[in-house]
């Protein structure tokens, strides 16, 4: 008899207490649980054919917990007994893992060159784009948003498209970034005027405009480095 198959097909309530993730965690601590037991505890319920331990074992076959972040909904719904609701529950665990890993690899902007390193890909773009980076008081990146694409007329960009995400991220600092695909990174009169407008609005709304960086084919221009902010 395959012991694992036997255990996984029994009802959870009929298993010995030392095989139950919840009871084991309460008795020995959450760190005592295996990957399968941790996932089972998070899932709560199994399927018609497998109890929650069996389902967790099936999901983690040839995988580690951290691999859940790479799964797609199609990978899960093809498993017998997993519908969209259960798949989303599993994907949410993967997304939590992904975000924790991203937090551990946090990006901090200490100088304009750090920003340029992060957005250097803009120098290869053929379309004009306006990107906004949002930071906390430690200059740590909280999020980024593309607020305009193509034939960029910077004076027509709506300030609300910049500030609404700032509120959502609960940001402190704002860094504007846009590219000049066909020219040098030197700012135009419109760029300077627009930057002044966003700076004034930032002050009124309780944010700090940290920089406006223009990316050209070769190099970049930083408003803060040039004393224009």
TrEMBL record:
Biological processes per GO annotation: proteolysis
Stored Gene3D superfamilies: Cytidine Deaminase, domain 2
Molecular-function GO term, any one: metal ion binding
Entry keyword annotation includes Protease: yes
Record's keyword terms, sorted: Hydrolase, Metal-binding, Metalloprotease, Protease, Zinc
UniProt entry tagged with the keyword Oxidoreductase: no
Domain MPN: 100-229
One Pfam family per UniProt: RadC
Family note: Belongs to the UPF0758 family.
PANTHER family listed in its UniProt record: DNA REPAIR PROTEIN RADC (PTHR30471), UPF0758 PROTEIN YEES-RELATED (PTHR30471:SF3)
Protein name: DNA repair protein RadC
Species of provenance: Persephonella marina (strain DSM 14350 / EX-H1)
């Amino acid at each position: 008899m395959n012991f694992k198959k036997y255990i996984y097909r029994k009802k959870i309530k009929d298993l010995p207490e030392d095989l139950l993730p919840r009871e084991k965690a309460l008795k020995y601590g959450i760190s005592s649980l295996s990957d399968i037991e941790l996932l089972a505890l998070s899932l709560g319920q199994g399927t018609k054919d497998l109890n929650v331990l069996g389902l967790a074992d099936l999901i983690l076959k040839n995988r580690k917990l951290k691999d859940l972040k790479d799964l797609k909904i199609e990978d899960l719904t093809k498993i017998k007994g997993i519908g969209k609701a259960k798949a989303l529950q599993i994907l949410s665990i993967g997304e939590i893992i992904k975000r924790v890993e991203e937090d551990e690899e946090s990006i901090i902007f200490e100088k304009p060159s750090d920003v340029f390193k992060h957005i250097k890909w803009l120098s290869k773009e053929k379309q004009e784009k306006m990107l906004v980076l949002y930071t906390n008081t430690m200059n740590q990146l909280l999020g980024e948003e593309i607020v305009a694409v193509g034939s960029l007329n910077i004076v027509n960009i709506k300030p609300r498209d910049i500030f609404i995400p700032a509120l959502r991220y609960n940001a402190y600092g704002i860094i504007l970034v846009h590219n000049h695909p066909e020219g040098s990174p030197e700012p135009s009169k419109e760029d300077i005027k627009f930057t002044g407008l966003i700076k004034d609005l930032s002050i009124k709304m309780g944010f700090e405009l940290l920089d406006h960086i223009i990316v050209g084919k070769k190099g970049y221009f930083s408003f803060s480095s040039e004393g224009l902010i």
